[in-house]
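Checklist before submission:
- one chain only
- standard amino acids only
- sequence pasted in full

Submission:
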Amino acid sequence: MKKLIKGGRVVSMDAAIGDFVRGDVLIEDDRIVAVAAHIEADADEVHDATDMIVLPGLVNAHLHTWQTGLRSIGAGWTGPDYHRLMHGNMGTRFNAEDNYVATLVGALEQLNGGVTTLFDWCHNLTSLEMAERSVDGLEESGIRAVFGHGTAKPLAADGDLPFTHRPHARERLEALRKGRFASDDRRVTLAAAILGPQFSTPEVTEHDFRMARDLGLLSSSHAARRPQDRVSAKGYFIPAERGLLDHSHNVVHGNYLTDEELKLVVESGASITVTSLIELHVHPADPVTGRVSALGGLPSLGVDSIPAANSDLFTEMRVAMLFQRALEHRANYRKGNGPLETLPVRSREALEWITIGGARALGLEHLIGSLTPGKKADIILIGMKALNLFPVHDPVHTVVQQANAFNVDTVFVNGDLIKRNGSLLFDANTLRKRQAELEISAARIIRESGYQLAAA
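Returned file contents:
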């Protein structure tokens, strides 16, 4: 089936194609086949993009979607509070259906906000059933996703082996890889959400990296601990020395990485995902967006943890950009210099972080991240007449500085229409039912945990 997006303000995010004040995008089945100022085609559907900004779908490179039902519960938590209350308590009370409904509703929220691809970092899993139902939620939503199979991190009882010393559950990962994820030619694919060297012993680190490589999977790990708090003091030098650190690994956060270690990670080809909203919430060390860029890397962004952070990827992008600008302004001021002649971090650079940067982090740059013929038809349209956007003088500046999830008018994933005229096409009655189920699920988990909501 051919679909023609007609007469929009096209921002392709592909330097070879450029942008168009008025342009068209032609879709055939699940692929983009043409992007140009004017396309004549015998299309089955024509989508009028007049007064719309046409963009590649956004990529949220890190989200714990299973936590959707606990939105804002941790807005006043510290980092240790989060690990104690979420992983040590509430996270242990989820069952397979809790994961399913949270993942479905969370994925739909992301689609509503223009996110067409999500790295769902699911790290509360205790069974294959929980993993399968989480994937069911992703697939039912229609989103493109990388499902990061992680493991639960309960507090160790006396005499128990702590999670830091437990290798990843290979049997579950293999079952998924040999089952529904036997092929990578699908909308939802599989990754290994491993502990990594900051949260596991050298032996576990090597096991988990090798496991992911053996199964042909992207792996990803958190790097959010101070050097003195790491389980493995040598950090990412461990997988690097063993020939295991390369483009198939994604590092999340990295705030406390030394210049030497960060350089090692970037030069290895591994990607870095920054989650500024959460990092500014609980960490004294700065987000590494600028440091990664200075080393020649391309950062990606994620919204991370809904219990404590806003889930809107536009907000994450804006905060990441503005914080990096502030850092560079302050550094310049401390040197006794006058105002900078040009602003650090261009708007287009920030937009790259949530498009092609996210695609590259997920190993999907050949499929998504730009409006390029041959890539998947993951496309969003943003209305330019909204009062918070109008008038639009430069679409990139407008999207980066002004837009939010509610400005997203239309969403295509894999050529399928997911949102139109500002409304998701997901069945409204089913959504209301799932929202009610999520409320019941969250209330039960909070009640069983014994947690008392603190005053704001």
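Reviewer check: The mean pLDDT is 97.
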